[in-house]
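pinging the channel bc i need a second pair of eyes. not urgent but kinda urgent?? the chain im working w is below, pasted from the shared doc
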Amino acid sequence: MKRKFFSIKLILERLFFLYREHRHDTKVLIYQMGKVGSSSLEAALPDSVHLHTLYGYPPAKKAVDFKRRSFIKSVRRVLYWWLLRQTLKRHKRIKIITLVRDPLQREVSQFFQDIEHWLSFHSLSKKIDTRDEDPELVSKCFEQSYDFEYGRFWYQREIGRFTGIDIKSFEHRAVGCATASHGKFDVIMVRLDKLKENISLLEDFLGIELDVGHSNAGSNKWYECIYNKFRCEYTPPPFIINDIYTNNWVRFMYSPDEWAGMKSKHDSGVSL
């Protein structure tokens, strides 16, 4: 009984801290998929709020939830995301920055960021004997168990749902940069490969000057060796290429020639 009371007390304390931290409407939201290269932008905006989800769908949710069964933790997560959404929606004006990146490169980067979760999920869900030595284990895990739906539906599940802004409502301001507004929401979407070219538009959007550097590269991670080997040797099958290069945000943020070029490049087995 005491343990349950302590858990409830801890949940309430964390929820109160969450409300107190986010109740003021002076912060910019950096709200986007995982692994799109936002660490440098976040560093340039120290008072910003960095989010991958407002609806309880983090990048490795499928893998983590497979092993997580706690009812108390599930309730806590539901309350956390609900209160965060309600607190942010009380702001008078909400500015959102969201970056996007070549989808296959993002998927591979995301996979390796959470590779311990995906390998565990793959082994348990497929009932693989971990004593067996399979040189194709990583590529099989990526193709058979990784959650490609996360990136494909991220915009609809997150920003679209939170702001009511459809991807088709954005207006292109320059190559790789688009904006949209609805009610109290102002959103700017920028391609990572065009970030430097669009810094002035981003500064106009925020009303401040920015000094954006570079950080959080895969070469600085513990998985650097296997990550680089995978990028050089792996050729994704057609079903993955066709799936990730035909979703709505890719078609919107890249010209037909650009997304067709990315698709054909990986179709031809060019390294990531």
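so Residues 194 and 241 are 22 Å apart (CA to CA). and The longest helix spans residues 2-22. — does that match what u expected or am i reading it wrong
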